[in-house]
Design brief:
Number of helices: 1
Largest sheet: 7 strands, mixed
Shape: flat
Helix content: under 10%
Strand content: 35-45%
Oligomer: single chain
Structural class: mainly beta
Number of strands: 38
């Protein structure tokens, strides 16, 4: 979509000291064209999706994986702009002029801002065993309070006043509201979210106003599952009368009206001229827990707390009794299951000639011992915890794959939320559910640079200008530090200069010096290395023109290591000829 009816007003340029990190955050601004208005919520950052590995390890996208987009004043106000904040990792530095590109989509609106105050009223949280949570959309605020006035019914209710900058006749998402029934202390009973329906006047989750009522639905739109259905976002609980909602989710949208005051609440009931109200028709009810829904809802590990580990990556150093991560299985108390951990595949080497063994190399049948045995049951806390078994270190080439298989016992189901990235399942949501989550183990890797042997009589001028003087990314030998498919933790950019010499003739350029001269040893390794500012010239260094010398210079940037070690080899005899 790109940007419509607006533009990023300027680039952000900052002078930096070569090789120094801690670059301050850069700020850019989206400015509307004449007659248009902007709000941060109407724009989306696609930078990581568009540029992927080119910005990985450089731009810090935070926990949301997106650049920060904020309003400078009030959304859609005359003077509002959208500020784009680009944070860089502290250890990122540059050694040359560098351009970092971002990708933002969105459009400015032709409709200015209208300040909106709307009221949502409820009894649910004022009664016993019920609570309400409100997740606000960006730019929306809420004030909670009671109702004030002489009418006796007012004091029973709780009021939530939502305030935001909207646009006339344009719908805005305001908030997600969750009604939750508290857990019943008596295990023989359960609490659930229910509705008031005296005399059948209010068949759904909201108060149905009479013909002369000032409490109406004008401008309001709610997205939810109507009574008595249970939606995919709701949380159910089993009762003797069947499943009931333990948590009920509602998403609130509102469309501002033209020429309406939208005053803040000043007491009493609603006014047709200044107020817009909606009233929840909900309460907490109790039922017998004759049958309880037994389910497994999530499986987590703290592998990410280990060096070079992540939620599904086992460190190359393995797992020992000194660094044992914990697995947590979440679910209903009483839910029963079996769990198995196995080494499922070993990939030897990373080139197109790699070999793959399906099944175990280090373990009989692939099954890893010291896992919970037999059928295990989730305790009253709702979390079954166990330690991952020891895994041997993996220091050769290629990688290993592991599978953690959880099989539900009769009467227990596994929900789809237990399936992690790359995992598989069968019969999900039934009493024969199986979830298999995958884990990987990679050795530490590096990226090296070498040259073919020089032709007879050619020599490097000095050890400082030898191909071997180009440092590796990720160390070498037993001191490798590179984590597969991740950026280097230290220097990501290398500037190099290589000089050669031979007497009794003259060097001349044979071919253009470009990226193709660096030949990767491993294909399909998925490392990301870029070569720039490549220059080849006759002479010793950057200014000399002596024909018995030749020099190449350039910049190498490593954005990501591959599955395994990588070597880029350069043949200087393809760049220069000596006659």
């Amino acid at each position: 979509m790109a940007l419509e009816n607006c533009e990023i007003v300027e680039s952000s340029i900052a002078d930096q000291v070569s090789g120094e990190g801690n670059i301050t955050a850069r700020e850019l601004y989206i400015k509307p064209k004449e007659g248009f208005y902007v709000a941060a919520k109407d724009f989306v950052d696609n930078t990581y999706d568009t540029y992927s590995s080119y910005v990985q390890g450089i731009i810090d996208f935070g926990s949301e994986g997106k650049l920060q987009l904020t309003d400078t004043t009030t959304p859609y106000a005359d003077d509002n702009e959208v500020k784009i904040t680009v944070n860089l990792f502290a250890d990122y530095s540059i050694t040359e002029d560098t351009i970092l590109s971002i990708d933002i989509d969105g459009r400015a609106s032709a409709t200015p801002a209208t300040n909106v105050n709307i009221q949502v009223i409820e009894l649910f949280s004022t009664l016993s065993n019920g609570s309400i949570t409100i997740d606000l959309e960006e730019g929306v605020s809420v004030v909670d309070g009671g109702l004030i006035g002489s009418e006796s019914w007012l004091s029973d209710f709780k009021r939530h006043q939502f305030t935001f900058a909207g646009q006339v006749d344009i719908e805005s998402k305001v908030a997600t509201i969750t009604l939750k029934a508290d857990t019943n202390a008596d295990v023989d009973f359960v609490n659930f979210v229910d509705r008031f329906n005296s005399g059948g006047e209010h068949p759904d989750w909201f108060y149905e106003p009479g013909p002369n009522s000032l409490i109406g639905n004008k401008g309001f739109r709610w997205v939810y599952e109507k009574y008595p259905n249970i939606g995919s976002s709701d949380v159910s609980i089993n009762t003797g009368g069947g499943p009931k909602p333990e948590q009920k989710h509602f998403v609130l949208y509102y469309t501002p009206e033209p020429d309406f005051a939208y005053d803040t609440y000043d007491g009493g009931g609603p006014s047709s001229d200044t107020d817009r109200w909606n009233v929840f028709n909900a309460k907490v009810s109790t039922a017998e827990a004759s049958t309880r829904s037994l389910s497994i809802t999530n499986v987590t590990t703290d592998l990410g707390s280990l060096p070079s580990g992540s939620f599904n990556v086992i460190p190359s150093s393995g797992i020992t009794t000194n660094n044992t991560p914990i697995v947590k299985v979440y679910g209903t108390p009483g839910a029963a299951f079996r769990v198995e951990f196995k080494e499922s595949k070993v990939v030897e080497g990373v080139s197109s000639n790699r070999s793959t063994n399906t099944g175990a190399v280090d373990y009989f049948g692939g099954i890893i011992p010291n896992m919970p045995s037999g059928i295990v049951v989730i305790p009253r806390s709702g979390i079954y915890t166990f330690k991952m078994p020891n895994i041997t270190a993996f220091t050769t080439t290629g990688w290993k794959e592991f599978e953690m298989k959880i099989t539900a016992s009769n009467g227990t189901i596994i929900k789809s939320s237990a399936i992690k990235t790359g995992g598989t399942s069968s019969n999900i949501g039934t009493s024969s559910s199986i979830v298999t989550n995958k884990f990987y183990q990679y050795p530490k890797v590096n990226i090296e640079f070498k040259a073919e042997d020089l032709p007879a009589g050619w020599a490097y001028t000095h050890s400082d200008y030898n191909i071997s003087s180009i440092p590796n990314f990720g160390g070498s030998g037993s001191n490798k530090t590179g984590v597969p498919l991740m950026p280097p933790r230290t220097a990501r950019v290398i500037n190099f200069e290589v000089r050669i010499t031979k007497t009794g003739g003259a060097f001349s350029l044979n071919n253009t010096f470009d990226r193709s001269q660096f030949v990767a040893t491993e294909r399909d390794n998925r490392d990301v290395v870029s070569f720039s500012n490549l220059k080849a010239r006759i002479g010793e260094g950057l200014t000399d023109t002596t024909v018995t010398f030749a020099t190449i210079t350039g910049t190498i940037r490593c954005s990501r290591f591959g599955f395994g070690n990588q070597v880029y080899t350069l043949d200087l005899s393809k760049i220069f000829t000596f006659t």
